[in-house]
Amino acid sequence: MRRLLNAETLSGAFVLALGGIGLLAIGNLEIGTLNDMGPGYMARAVAWAILAFGAVILLMGLRAEMPPIPAMEWRPALAISLATIAFGATIDRQGIVIATIAMTVLAGFASPITRHRETPILAAALAAGAALVFVVGLKLAIPIWPR
Q1: Who's near 136: CB < 8 A, 6+ residues apart?
Q2: What's the chain's Rg over C-alpha atoms?
Q3: Is the pTM of this model over 0.70?
Q4: What are the residue ranges of helices labelled H in the chain?
Q5: Kindly report the CA angle at 143 between 140 and 147, in degrees rounded to 5?
Q6: 43-51, Cβ contacts within 8 angstroms, sequence gap of 24 or more
Q7: pLDDT per residue as tens digits for the range 42-95
């Protein structure tokens, strides 16, 4: 049982599940031929590759003696999840600057060694960089400031 409950075997099972979901999602898309590829050709090839990698990872986990799964760290998981949700919830109405600042501040709570005096400086730099790259450089239709 211990061999089954290590990070390697669970990761392999997860990757296998992703490959299986990918194959199910592809459904009946036309495969075509090598010279005339249909829309399902590359998608199916990638899904099978994911399945193969998952099988390799799973077998490596079953063959080797791996340490058990460490206890869940709730603080980083919660902080990063909240940061991601806040970014997604605020970017359309508040703009990329506010969304990036909120995300950076919330993500800063993930680590106990975060320097809270430096976090606003980092947030401002990341917000400016995100606005320059995505709005000015790539011309994505994202508001910079609140609407």
Answers
A1: none
A2: 21
A3: no
A4: 7-26, 41-63, 74-107, 119-130
A5: 155
A6: 46/22, 47/19, 47/22, 47/23, 48/19, 48/23, 49/19, 50/15, 50/18, 50/19, 50/22, 51/16, 51/19, 51/20, 51/23
A7: 999 999 999 999 999 999 988 888 777 888 899 999 999 999 999 999 999 999
DSSP 137: I
Which amino acid is residue 86, in one-letter code? Answer: A
Q: Which two tokens stand for residue 61?
A: 């986990």
Nearest Cα residue to 62 out of 20, 13, 23: 13
Q: Which two tokens stand for residue 76?
A: 């980083």
- The residue type of 140 is L
Token pair for residue 125?
């730099």
Kindly report, residue by residue over 72-86, the tens digit of the pLDDT. Answer: 899 999 999 999 999
